Amino acid sequence: MLSAAELHRRALVEGEASRYGRARSLLLKALERHPGDEVQARIELSLAYVESERGSVDDGLHQCERALRHRDLTNQFRALVRSQQGLLLMRAGRGAEALQAFTGAEPGLADQSEPLTRLF
User: Fold this and answer.
1) Which of 14, 57, 105, 111 could tie 92 with a disulfide, CB 3.0–4.6 Å?
2) CA distance 108 to 97
3) Cβ contacts of residue 79 below 8 Å, gap of 6+?
4) How far is CA 33 from CA 4, 10, 108, in A?
5) What is the mean pLDDT of each run of 10 residues along the chain (120 residues)?
6) Which residues are CB-contacts of 108 (< 8 A; sequence separation ≥ 6)?
7) CA-CA distance, 85 to 103, in Å (whole number)?
């Protein structure tokens, strides 16, 4: 049985190939494995992008909020979530809200060690 982290990794590969339906299935399966808070938050962040690509920015934004509910997330990870929110809002034509999200994310991205240009 694949771990939640491995399912998430496979979902990233599917998403990078624009196979969002398959990515979504893998992400939902990963959530069923009841991963720890950090892995679950990362899965939810990836699911946010997938949901928006499948046509629901509101579902994507909801997933971002779910990711932020976990305790013990680093400020850097919270900034990644805020930047994801900014991206989704920008793509939905909600410029003022996007700018607010990006502005909130900026301080936490200064020392970011993770890639900032991953698709999701």
Assistant:
1) 57
2) 18
3) 104, 105, 106, 107, 108, 109, 112
4) 6, 15, 29
5) 95 95 97 90 94 91 93 90 94 93 88 57
6) 75, 76, 78, 79, 80, 82
7) 11
